[in-house]
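Why do we care about 3D structure at all? Because function follows from shape, and shape follows, mostly, from sequence. That is the central idea of this module. The next example makes it concrete: a single protein chain, its amino acid sequence, and then its structure expressed as tokens.
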Amino acid sequence: MTVMESTAAVGGSGTGTDSCAAPPPRHPRPDGQDSYTISEVVAFTGLTAHTLRWYERIGLMPHIDRSHTGQRRYNNRDLDWLGFVGKLRLTGMPVAGMVRYAELVREGDHTFAERRELLEATRRDVLSRIDELQDTLAVLDHKISFYADAGHAPASERSR
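And the structure:
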């Protein structure tokens, strides 16, 4: 079973597939095409070929099909998975956590609870970081306001 052949969405509609919860944004891929070279995937995702090979080597990517000449051939599910991995990266999830999640998906439906726990922990971390960033934004807004007001005040009042 590949990473994306999977499983019912956690807390989802019970459709029996885990397509990474919300549908991923569409990559600029040609309609009707479902086979891509590594260079096409690089262009679609912004990842490097080295990164794609590394993801495969560490188990973050499912088995990637090969052409008769041995060239990697990615499909739309692979691109969707890479989109999801990109979101996990943005959360700050460690690579080991992403690999663990991929392993759990490959293990099957009986790992739903552990996958959910992993994603919920990541969500808590993201919310905490959002709070920190909102506090930081408030400080920046205060300083920006101070300097904007200071620029309009007479010189005698700016030194106070």
